[in-house]
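One such shown below:
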Amino acid sequence: EVEMSKLKVDTITPNTVAVIDAPWKVLQVVANTWKTATSTTSSTMSLVADSGTTITPKAITSKILITGYVSCDTTSSNHIGFKLYDGSSEITGATGSVGSGTNEMVASQGHSYSVGGMNALPFTFLYSPSTTSATTINLYFEGGTTSYVNRNHGNTTEGYSSNITLMEIGA
C-alpha cells in the first residue's frame, strides 16, 4: 500500500529576480524580413525602404546583436555599399575602411553583363545603444551606378528578400 503526501500552500510568491540580471543571455529577439525593391543612383547614403527594425532594450547596459543579409545587385562593374544606422545616425563602429577611404560595412563588386546576378551579403555587429528607449536600426546604401536592393537589375520580375534580426543581450 502506497501513501500519498499532501502539500498545502497558502500563497505563492513570484520570483522577483529580473531576467536582465543574467549577463550574456538573449533577452528578446526582433526580426524583420522585407521584399520591397529599392534603388539608388547616388554615391551618398540612402535609406533602404522597409529595413527599419525596432527593439526596446530592457536595460541600459544591454547590447544589441545585429545580424542579417541584404539581397542586392548593380547595373555595371561598380560597387554597392551598406551601412547600419541607429535612426538617422550612422553606427560608426560598424564600418571599416574599404577602397579609397570609403567606410562601408559590406560591399559587393557589380556585374558587367546584361543580366546581373544577385548577391546576398551577410552582416553582423554587436551594438551598445546605452538606452532603454525604442531603438530603430536602419540599413542605408549607396552605389556608383544604379544599385538595387531586393531586385535584379536585368530582370524586374524577379523578387528577393532581405533581413535584419536584432537580439538583445543582457550585459
